[in-house]
Amino acid sequence: MPNRLVIALKALAHIGCLAPVAWLIWHLIQNSLGPDPTAAVTFFTGRGALRLLVISLAITPVRRLIPPLSWIIRFRRLLGLYAFFYACLHLLTYVWLYAGFSLDAMIDDITKRRFITAGLAAWALMVPLALTSTTWSIRKLGGKNWNRLHRLAYVSAIAGVVHYWWGVKPGVLSPIGITVVLVLLLAARPILSWWSSHKRVPAQLARADKGL
Amino acid sequence: MLKRKSSGVQPTEITPRSVYLNRRAFMTGAAAAAIAGVLAPSEEAYADNRLTTVKSPLSLTGVQPTSLQDITHYNNFYEFGTNKDDPAREAYRLKTRPWTVSIEGKVQKPQKIDIDSLMKLRPLEERIYRFRCVEAWSMVIPWVGYSFSELIKEVQPLPEAKFVQFISLDDPNQMPGLRFSPISWPYSEGLRMDEAMHPLTLLTFGLYGEPLPNQDGAPVRIVVPWKYGFKSAKSIVKIKFVEKQPHTTWNDQGPNEYGFYSNVNPNKDHPRWSQKTERVIGASIFKQRQPTLMFNGYEDQVANLYTGMDLKKYY
Ligand code: HEM
């Protein structure tokens, strides 16, 4: 993949991630977010965060499945950081428009409402990942440790999905789509590992048979 | 009756739909069409639809009702889908004529009443009520109807009738939301007899002076303004007078979240959010929050129905 193209695609990715925020701010100023603007902002930022997080988690399995697409690894950090950015906007919406900056209200919510607790967990798990997203951190931690730490992204996504299910009324199925995608991604890792090891074994055996 | 300060906006000042629609058309850039008179025929069509109503002392005064646009585009009516804008898009499928309401159970005069006769049973009143959803949002809605107690008197319940159950239509051909839903339909709601007899409990046929839009529960619904919105069953096909507390749909779905009584109560939190405040629909984003009132502001009129009851236990 030529560097220039990657740079162009990265610019597009930035625009793709920022344009919805610009759209949101524009409608916020115009007061045209519909009948319930508070809920509109919450849902928009919450869904955005979860989608970006799940897309960033899809990068590795897609690369393993389609080796020519290996270069998409260069978009993972960007997508992960935007997921965190959306999650921060979502959290700000809550702190401002739900809790009204009242610490008491927030503590009340976090301790009494498991759906808020799960959301907070999803956000908190993203913090160390965002902080160690620099190349310097990868070098400092060492690839292995860094990889292990960044598996927390899966835990964060699971907490996000749980937060979503616990947030909707019993009988509402709107989180089903993102849940199915996440389950597929979680299943993909072990399946792909198993598959690639099985593929390699017969080839090695064949080679051994020929005395190579 | 309501001890509220009047800030000068009287019910008569509610924007009529035609003016309102014109204003919207103007705002959406269709001013040219309006000037050319394109909108005139539709205004007449609306005029034909207007219901004759009388004012009611039970109406709120001094409050600006929520816009018709918001009342008809922000709906919880899961029979048409679980998103707030699904009902506005899907409810055109609902056929509201012919329509009969079956009155059954412990009554002296069980009967099937045609919707048009039901509407003519008593003079229709305009009742401007607060509407508080359990999801912590609220509206002010100018309903049209008459006290449900008038119908109760007409059908003469037997002494053993202690509760009233409302059953909504459940026809998957008209209601696409019913097809892939884990909820067991039809929608069922209920009231204790004294709650049903309360003059505020409104048998509702319209809003903003016109027949109910389909997505708001046409052709007939119940409105119980001191309870969370889901108690106010829509598109009713059956009213049953029963001895025992009837099962109710949201209580079946989550008994710890939705009680049988479900009176608006800022001191009793929903497990997933506080009920102390509410988001006013149609308000701008930074002015949406307002405190929720006990019994949705109808405390003076209804608190006596619950004297001696622990409202945190019987939520
Ligand atoms: C401290 C952290 C968080 C808080 C306090 C919080 C709070 C909320 C609140 C109040 C709602 C609205 C629920 C409703 O009214 O139905 C919500 C919805 C949601 N949140 Fe969060 N949240 C947090 C973190 C997150 C994170 C990290 C994610 C994603 C990874 C997320 C994803 C969502 C989603 C998808 C929804 C549902 C949107 C919808 O129904 O369309 N939240 N959250």
Care to describe what's here?
The complex is a heterodimer of chains A (212) and B (315). In chain A, α2 (37-65) packs antiparallel against α8 (152-167), α4 packs across α5 (114-131) and α6 packs across α7 (143-150). Chain A is mainly α. Chain A has one domain (35-196). Chain A contains 9 helices and no strands. Mean pLDDT of chain A is 91; it is low at 206-212. Chain B has 315 residues and is an alpha+beta fold. Chain B has one domain (11-306): Oxidoreductase, molybdopterin-binding domain (Sulfite Oxidase, Chain A, domain 2, Alpha-Beta Complex). In chain B, 21% of the residues lie in helices and 22% in strands. Chain B has 10 helices and 13 strands. Chain B has helices at 17-27, 31-35, 40-49, 68-73, 86-90, 115-120, 148-155, 193-197, 249-253, 299-302; strands at 53-55, 100-105, 111-114, 124-132, 137-147, 163-168, 188-192, 202-207, 210-211, 221-223, 236-242, 277-280, 289-291. In chain B, the strands form 2 sheets. In chain B, strands 1, 4, 5, 8, 9, 10, 12 and 13 form an 8-stranded mixed beta sheet that branches. At the A-B interface, α2 and α4 of A face α4 of B. Protoporphyrin IX containing FE binds at residues 39, 42-43, 46-47, 49-50, 53, 87, 90-91, 94, 98, 116, 119-120, 122-123, 160, 163-164, 167-168 of chain A. Protoporphyrin IX containing FE (HEM) binds next to α2, α3, α5 and α8 of chain A.
